[in-house]
C-alpha cells in the first residue's frame, strides 16, 4: 500500500505536539544556533532531565535539552498495542554479564522525550527516613549526604505537581496523605488486599500512583485501560513529557530530539565547555554551554562520562575517585503469579494500584539487612506470556492453554532492596553502537544479603497469593529499576558528585538522575529522582551565574522554590481536611 485511502502520512512536525487528546503544545521549540553558548545543556530529557529543563527555563536561564530519542506526539506516535509500544524503550546494544546478569532493554530505561517516565507504571511511594542513613543504622550500604527532612519539601511539592493519587493516610516511613483521592481497586489489587488481610499484614489500596483519579487542567482522568507501561495515550498518567516539558517550552527552553550526546568537551582541566552530539542524520555537532548536566540514566550517564575521557581525566570524566560506574543497583523484582478459580482481569486498572511496605525496614528477627515491598504488577498478555514461559516452562500448545486462562491470573511483585556493591558496575565494552561509540557493559552479582532478602520476599508474596485463594502459584526471578553508578557523597574519595549533583572534579559539570542514588530502599525511585532534580534546580538558581565561573562550592541549602512548580499545581486536586 503506497498511501492509505484517507490521505498521506505526514512527516513528523516539530511545531505541534499532541500530548493526549486534550493537551497540545502549539509553540515551536526554540532553536539555538551551533555557535550560540547556552547557560545549561542537559543531556537526556527523562524523569530528572524534564524537571530540570522546566525549572531552569522558568527561572530565566537559556537552557537546551539534548535527547537521544524522538519528541513524541502521543496522538500520532503511540498505539494501544502492547507489541507496538516497544519503541519507547532504550533497545540499543548494551552488554550484560556477572554471576546474575541483568536483562537490559525494555525492563530498564526509555528513549525519547520523557525517558523512563513515559513507560513507568507510576508507582510513587516516598523513600523512608531510614533510607538516608542505611550505613549508620544497619551497618551496610552507605549513608546519603542528605537526610529525608531535606527532601521532604520536594516530596510534598512534586506529589501535588505531577500529581499523585493515594490514600488519605499512608502509614509507612514518614506517614502522610495524598492530594488526589485513591483509585478504585482492580482484580489484582483485590488479591493483594485479601491475601494481606488474611495474614494480618497492613496494606494500602488505590495508590500512591502518579495517575489522575480526577481531571487536572488539560489532562483527563484515568479510564482504566491498563496501558500505563505502554505510554498512556490518554494523558492521565504523569510523565515529564506531559507534566514538565510543555511548560519548559513555553518558557523558552529548546528540546533538541534525536540528538545523541557522544562526549563532554573540556575548556581546561577543571571546566567543561559543551557537548558533542550526533544529529538525526548522524552528523556530529558541538553545542557550547556554560554548564552541563548529565541526566541520561544509571547506564548511559556513566557511559557518557567514561566515553568523555580526555587529557587530565584519562579514566573518564569525574572519576578521580575510581567510583564512576560502580555501586550500580537494581531492585529485586521477582514476579509471583497466581491462578484463581474466578475472573481477575488484571488489565482492567493501572498495574500500579496497591502495595504494602510492612516489610520495608530491617527486622532483627530476619537474617538479612533492609527489606522489601509487595506491589501489584498486572502485565498485559505479551509480558504475561514471557513470564509464563520462564515460570511454568509454557511453550507451544501449553502456552496457548495458559494464555486462554489469562483472565484468571493475578500477578504480584516483590520490590526488594539490593545493596550497593563496588563490583556491580558499568564499564565500556569493546563493542560500538551505530555512531561508533563504545557501548556500556554492565556487570551484576548478587551478594549473600541480597540472596537471603530475595528468598524471604519471594516466599512472603507466595504466602499472600495462597492466602488470597490462589489454586496454583509460580514465580519468575527478575530485577527492576536500575540506579546508582555515579553516587553522591560528602567524601570525594568514594563518590562522584556532591549532595547537589555537582561532580567533585569538574566545577560546571553536574549529574542529576537515578545514577546519583547511594542506596535505593524498596520504594520505586521515580518520584525521588524528580525531587532530587527539583532540588538541584533550586541550588543552581540560588547560585546564579557563579556556577559558570567559580570553583568555590557553596554547600548551603537553597530555598525551596514552590513558585516554579508547574502552573496550577496548587489549585487542583481533591481537597483534604487536615
Ligand atoms: C517497565 C518499567 C516500569 C517502571 N515503573 C516505575 C514505577 O512504577 N515507579 C517508579 O518510580 N519507577 C518506575 N520505573 C523506573 C523509572 O522509569 C526510572 O527509574 C526513571 O525514569 C529513571 O529516571 P532518569 O532520569 O534516571 O532516566 P530516564 O528517565 O531513563 O531518562 C534518561 C534519558 O536520557 C536519554 N539519554 C541517555 N543517554 C543519552 C545521550 N548520550 N544523549 C542524549 N540523550 C540520552 C534517554 O533517551 C532518556 O530519555 C519503571 C521502569 C520500567 C522500565
Ligand atoms: S490505566 Fe489509566 S493511566 Fe494507565 S494507560 Fe489507561 S488511562 Fe492511562
Describe this structure in words.
This protein has 578 residues and is α/β, with parallel strands linked by helices. The chain has a single domain, classed as FAD/NAD(P)-binding domain, CATH 3.50.50. Helices cover 24% and strands 17% of the residues. The protein contains 14 helices and 20 strands. The strands form 5 sheets. Strands 3, 4, 7, 8, 9, 10 and 20 form a 7-stranded mixed sheet that branches. β8 and β9 (272-278) form a beta hairpin. The structure holds flavin-adenine dinucleotide and iron/sulfur cluster. Iron/sulfur cluster (SF4) binds at residues 211, 222-228, 232, 234, 236-237, 350.
Q: Tally the helices: what do you get?
A: 14
Instruction: Please give the largest β-sheet.
Output: 7 strands, mixed
Tell me the number of strands: 20
Unreliable stretches (pLDDT < 50, length at least 5) are 572-578
Determine the mean pLDDT.
93
| CATH uppermost class | Alpha Beta
Assign the CATH superfamily. FAD/NAD(P)-binding domain
Assign the structural class, choosing from mainly alpha, mainly beta, alpha/beta, alpha+beta, or little secondary structure: alpha/beta
Separation of termini?
61 Å
Give the CATH topology.
Answer: FAD/NAD(P)-binding domain
Helical content class: 10-25%
Number of domains: 1
Tell me the radius of gyration: 23 Å
Name every ligand kind in the structure: flavin-adenine dinucleotide, iron/sulfur cluster
Protein traits:
578 residues, alpha/beta, FAD/NAD(P)-binding domain, seven-stranded mixed β-sheet, six-stranded antiparallel β-sheet, 14 helices, 20 strands, 24% helix, globular, binds flavin-adenine dinucleotide, binds iron/sulfur cluster
Amino acid at each position: 500500500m503506497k498511501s492509505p485511502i484517507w490521505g498521506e502520512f505526514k512527516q513528523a512536525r516539530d511545531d505541534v505536539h499532541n500530548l493526549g487528546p486534550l493537551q497540545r503544545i502549539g509553540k515551536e521549540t526554540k532553536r539555538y544556533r551551533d555557535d550560540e553558548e547556552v547557560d545549561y545543556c542537559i543531556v537526556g530529557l527523562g524523569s530528572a532531565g524534564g524537571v530540570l529543563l522546566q525549572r531552569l527555563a522558568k527561572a530565566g536561564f537559556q537552557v537546551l535539552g539534548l535527547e537521544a530519542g524522538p519528541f513524541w506526539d502521543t496522538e500520532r506516535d503511540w498505539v494501544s498495542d502492547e507489541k507496538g509500544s516497544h519503541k519507547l524503550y532504550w533497545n540499543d546494544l548494551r552488554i550484560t554479564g556477572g554471576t546474575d546478569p541483568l536483562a537490559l532493554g525494555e525492563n530498564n530505561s526509555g528513549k525519547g522525550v520523557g525517558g523512563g517516565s513515559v513507560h513507568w507504571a507510576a508507582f510513587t511511594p516516598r523513600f523512608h527516613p531510614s533510607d538516608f542513613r542505611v550505613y549508620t543504622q544497619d551497618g551496610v550500604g552507605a549513608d546519603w549526604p542528605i537526610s529525608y527532612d531535606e527532601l521532604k519539601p520536594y516530596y510534598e511539592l512534586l506529589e501535588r505537581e505531577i500529581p499523585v493519587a493515594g490514600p488519605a493516610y499512608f502509614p509507612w516511613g514518614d506517614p502522610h496523605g495524598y492530594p488526589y483521592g485513591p483509585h478504585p481497586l482492580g482484580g489484582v489489587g483485590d488479591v493483594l488486599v485479601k491475601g494481606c488481610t488474611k495474614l494480618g499484614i497492613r496494606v494500602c489500596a488505590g495508590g500512591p500512583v502518579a495517575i489522575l483519579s480526577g481531571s487536572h487542567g488539560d489532562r483527563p482522568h484515568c479510564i482504566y485501560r491498563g496501558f500505563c507501561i505502554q505510554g498512556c495515550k490518554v494523558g492521565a498518567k504523569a510523565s515529564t513529557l506531559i507534566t514538565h516539558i510543555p511548560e519548559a517550552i513555553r518558557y523558552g527552553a529548546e528540546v533538541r530530539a534525536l540528538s545523541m550526546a557522544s562526549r563532554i568537551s573540556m575548556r581546561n582541566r577543571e571546566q567543561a565547555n559543551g557537548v558533542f552530539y550526533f544529529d538525526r542524520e548522524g552528523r556530529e555537532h558541538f553545542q557550547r554551554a556554560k554548564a552541563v548536566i548529565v541526566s541520561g540514566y544509571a547506564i548511559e550517564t556513566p557511559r557518557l562520562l567514561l566515553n568523555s575521557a580526555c587529557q587530565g581525566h584519562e579514566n573518564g570524566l569525574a572519576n578521580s575517585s575510581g567510583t564512576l560506574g560502580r555501586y550500580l543497583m537494581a531492585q529485586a523484582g521477582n514476579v509471583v503469579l497466581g491462578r484463581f478459580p474466578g475472573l481477575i482481569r488484571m488489565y482492567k486498572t493501572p498495574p500500579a494500584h496497591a502495595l504494602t511496605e510492612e516489610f520495608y525496614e530491617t527486622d532483627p528477627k530476619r537474617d538479612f539487612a533492609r527489606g522489601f515491598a509487595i506491589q501489584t504488577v498486572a502485565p498485559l498478555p505479551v509480558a504475561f506470556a514471557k513470564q509464563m514461559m520462564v515460570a511454568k516452562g509454557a511453550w507451544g500448545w501449553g502456552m496457548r492453554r495458559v494464555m486462554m486462562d489469562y483472565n484468571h491470573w493475578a500477578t504480584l511483585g516483590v520490590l526488594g532492596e539490593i545493596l550497593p556493591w563496588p563490583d556491580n558496575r558499568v564499564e565500556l565494552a569493546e563493542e560500538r553502537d551505530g555512531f561508533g561509540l563504545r557501548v556500556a557493559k554492565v556487570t551484576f552479582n548478587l551478594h549473600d544479603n541480597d540472596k537471603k532478602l530475595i528468598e524471604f520476599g519471594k516466599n512472603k508474596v507466595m504466602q499472600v497469593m495462597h492466602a488470597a485463594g490462589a489454586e496454583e502459584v509460580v514465580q519468575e526471578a527478575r530485577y527492576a529499576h536500575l540506579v546508582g553508578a555515579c553516587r553522591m557523597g560528602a567524601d570525594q574519595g568514594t563518590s562522584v558528585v556532591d549532595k547537589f549533583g555537582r561532580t567533585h572534579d569538574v566545577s560546571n559539570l553536574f549529574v542529576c538522575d537515578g545514577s546519583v542514588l547511594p542506596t535505593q530502599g524498596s520504594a520505586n525511585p521515580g518520584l525521588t529522582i524528580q525531587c532530587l532534580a527539583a532540588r538541584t534546580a533550586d541550588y543552581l538558581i540560588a547560585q546564579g551565574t557563579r556556577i559558570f565561573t567559580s570553583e568555590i562550592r557553596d554547600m548551603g541549602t537553597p530555598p525551596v522554590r514552590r513558585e516554579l512548580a508547574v502552573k496550577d499545581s496548587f489549585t487542583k486536586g481533591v481537597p483534604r481536611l487536615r
